[in-house]
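Posted in: Structural Biology > Protein-Ligand Complexes

Title: Requesting predicted complex, 1,6-di-O-phosphono-alpha-D-glucopyranose in pocket

I'd be grateful if someone could produce the 3D structure tokens for the following input. Sequence and ligand are given below.
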Amino acid sequence: MSQVNTITTSPIDGQRPGTSGLRKKTQVFSQPGYLENFVQSIFDTIGGLKGSTLVLGGDGRYFNRQAVQTVISMAAANGAARVLVGKGGILSTPAASLVIRKHKTAGGIILSASHNPGGPDGDFGIKYNVPAGGPAPESVTEAIYARTREIDRYQILEECHCDIDREGTVEIANTRVEIIDSVADYIALMRSIFDFAAIRELLTSGFKLHFDAMHAVTGPYALALFEDELGAPQGSVFNAVPLPDFGGGHPDPNPVHAKELMQAMMSPGGPDFGAASDGDGDRNLIVGRGIYVAPSDSLAVLVANAHLAPAYAGGLSGVARSMPTSQAADCVAEKLGIPVFETPTGWKFFGNLLDEGLVTICGEESAGTGSDHVREKDGLWAVLLWLNILAERRESVIDIMSAHWQQFGRNYYSRHDYENIDSDAAAGLISAVRDQLGQLPGQSFAGLRVVTADDFCYDDPVDGSTSRNQGIRVIMEDGSRIVMRLSGTGTEGATLRVYLEIFEPDPIKQHGDVQQVLAPLVAAAEEIARISTITGRTEPDTRT
Ligand code: G16
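-- Reply #1 --
Done. Output follows.
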């Protein structure tokens, strides 16, 4: 029988979780004790694991299998009663959230760096999700971080290896390790939300679906759903085999990284509907033939049409979006007469609202959409909701979008990212803008007059906690907005995100090119923050 080893250790710098867990270069994670220190800090923070059940899985990236073995050995050494592990160490983030909730566990550990590239030179990540199934709130992640600063030992079983490729139960020390089907529970949940018969009819009627799994975790889920269960022709799901390095790709479902999908969707006679998901399956990209649907617009369309899916036929209790997300969903919520909550960036801020039943659907500009069915954003859920809507409306995506803008107005929106810039320069830029916030109202930049400027502060209506400094907001006289914040998910230097939004209610004027329409706001952002002078960049690396 494996022996419990108590290993003496000492704190390692920089283990502060970001927007969504701890993300670092794989090489950093492979240092002796790095993963172990963080995992033990999680266990210590949640009051130990004695007698509890832990869920464990990841997105299959390089180092996933090794890390799964380490976490199993540590969970057993820490006295867990059960560990539920996705077969092969695979669980998409939304599937992990579901398993955590379904089995009433002490939470789960998800091994993923989301949409960041993988491989020995790529990124790795780990996050703890609470028993409700969602990402740990700031109070918990801060406590984990504090624990990493004082850790002096961790517990692990000696020479423990578990066969994670065969479903079944193995006893390790006093812990039952159950290797579970990674996909089945998730498919069953989707079946209970959507009208599968209607979607099957659509997908077998000649309608062409093109789903890019980006060689990431959604491959097996998407094959089981779209091809096996819903009858889409073979080949509708491509890049379906999860690979440790995502086939050398960048599993971020946006028009820049899902190039192959975009090319197919923009060619005449291309598929009717295209979609993609990211490394761990929580983000989504939606594309119709000849039209890219921006995440904020997608959220608005889903809110407006959710009643077409059985689970939402009775209407929505409310909607939540992160502050930088465009206000397109607000326009819909207003017409539906339901409340809108504006939260800081990060899915964890939706948890309380969902638990209290204050909102049914949530979404973020960063390509995350989801509902109260789990406590994570859910890429395939968003794709299925779109398909359910298309099956009911039998219109093209392009027609749905123009009808939507006609009815609710169009929020021209784009995010400009300046990647891997010097961290000090980025912090200096934000603090310089923060320092002049009080003087901005009344001044004009590039012809636009500022009416309010603040650094977003969120008071959680459920637990009363306050989160400050969540992004700079500058609002102009015509209602247009500039938002600026630093990314919390990168692993190299800093990424400055500038979010730009202009509302156009008049359908006659809704046909302009997005970047051209937003050009005056870009100029205003430059005047306010002196981005090119401070970062040395005259253009953003990506515009999405
Ligand atoms: C994570 C969070 C999202 C958040 C995003 C923001 O996404 O789960 O809720 O919107 O980070 O990223 P950034 O701080 O870089 O703007 P994911 O998919 O990386 O887990």
